[in-house]
Amino acid sequence: MPEPTNPEPVGAEPTPPSTAAERPATPATAPVDEVTEINPDVDIAPEDIGVPVVAEGERLLEVDTVTLRFGGVVALNEVSFHINKGEILGLIGPNGAGKTTCFNVMTGVYQPTSGEVRYLGKPLGKRHKYQITKLGIARTFQNIRLFANMTALENVLVGVDAHHSTGVVTAMFRLPKHRREEEQGRARAMELLEFMGLAGKADELARNLPYGDQRRLEIARALATSPQLLCLDEPAAGFNPAEKAKLMELIRTIRDQGYTVLLIEHDMKLVMGVTDRIVVLEFGRKIAEGTPAEIRDNPAVIAAYLGVDEEDAS
Amino acid sequence: MTTTQNATKKVRPNLNERIADLPLPIKVVLWIIFALFLFALPLLNIPFITTPDSDFGGVLFTVSTYVLVALGLNIVVGYAGLLDLGYVGFYAVGAYTVGVLSSQHGSLPWLWCVPIAILVAMASGVILGAPTLRVRGDYLAIVTLGFGEIVRLTLINSEWLGGAQGISEIPRPPGIELFEVPSIDWSTGVPVVDLGTTTTFLKFGISDFIPYYWLALVVIALVLVFDILVKNSRVGRAWEATREDEDAAELMGVPTFRFKLLAFALGAAIGGLSGAMFAGKSGFINPQSFELLLSILFLAAVVVGGQGNRWGVILGAIVVSYFPERFREFADFRVLVFGLALMLLAIFRPQGLLPPRRTLRAKRADARQHVLEEGEAGA
Prior knowledge:
Chain A is α/β, with parallel strands linked by helices and about 325 residues long. Chain A is built from 11 helices and 10 strands.
């Protein structure tokens, strides 16, 4: 029996429930080798979410001498950088350098031990995670964390719902607000799915989607919250070169539609090709910052990636 | 190949979908016939279905209480994914609120007590949930287990609440005696209208429990409508997202704590409502009516039926409460059979008798995939 070709690494899939022990690696709706094409022309520009919109090139978010300690371990050591509106900023570094930790500080998962994160000029402070999302910072996850037993459309709707306020009473009596939010929400969610090329799979359960579609769906879900800043945590993990090229296109298109993107990525080629500026972390410290060209020739970065001794590098 | 056959069989639309495809007027008519059948059920005295050893009207009322409770618990366990082992506590709070206000320390009519009981149960849900919903999974189960026991022990030890004797002389729901409804007699082998055994519409008496069952049916219908409307909205999605991945939900803008508390409060309110119905029907409550075993049975109803699917948990509640009454003659083996049934269920239907549609959909997708692969292999 010919093995169905399977472009995605099985290990990277979210663990399905135990009942599906014999679940085939390629999910049902994905005819073999099909690569989902995005529709870059669909308008997915962020909706007005009631936060001040900064002008292109102005500072959107500042990480100001942030230190984060877990007991004796210093995960982030006086890290400072900023993100300008409308740019694609790459955050790179070897494994364990503190990239994801940095994301977690920015999205309210961790509170910095010292220093602060300023968004739109104001410190994020001790806001809840969902409040930070409402302010316009959204993220994806290194290991996919979709709502596996909800449909693709429902996943995106949860993101859109971030700015909705329908509660039990509104829903129970089907008040106009419910209908309005539901209609608007569905329209926006379908636009996003269309943009991602997933409109035909709107009613598929997230866990039945092929790996690449799951990655895209996660981005769509984050975009659904109409973020000012979109943080992508290794979106190309497990992708082959063709898929990576597509992803670069996608990230650029997202930026062109009016989003600011912060990108964590291991793949140097991808980062160099798509970002405007790059921040390099190593052992929780920022060791370099600059344009892709500057970073490429930076001896400290080369040392960090190739493991040259400190003395040789400096 | 057998797998292919299985697979193709699974892909065919099931009964549910075929019903969904019917035109609306036919669906409405079917629903009305079904509702009429439910209301007439205790009068029809259908052989084999009717319980031989206990009053069928009373059994049907008990079954409908379980259904109501299961619907409430389904919001907590099925939708929001919070394991609650002390649900009987809310049931007790509802029943005792009615008892205290109408008999022990007041003389409010039953109908006035019901909304108060719902509110008190809801408040107790919030009071229990606010500090405990920060813990997850196993811890929450243990805390709620403790809550159920604390409620029961408080009832036993508080003289103000009637102590171990409980509260008696709880007033019954107000009735209007309009007309007599005859029942059907099967003793000759053919159904004959029996004008001797009648039920008064609508008299909430002490020997004929059929009107209580009718009342419970109406309440269940209202709760079902509420359940459908709320589940099918932002609220329902937020619950599901929280159940699926709490951290991811929070980072997608869902105030998870608030929604978990909401699920807890709504579940508690429905539990309290069931308790109030129970108190109104039996006229007498004591702490023994609210044993821990009841919490387990309630949870069993939800799990057996298929948590997350409202029709499933209704079926589960019927299974858990009806069969022990129907087969009373085997009372000695009840627990044994129940245990065996649960084990078989765990092996053959781990998602419950009627799993939520999401599980079914996943299964159908698998089946389609099998077909695709088999087709490839054949080519």
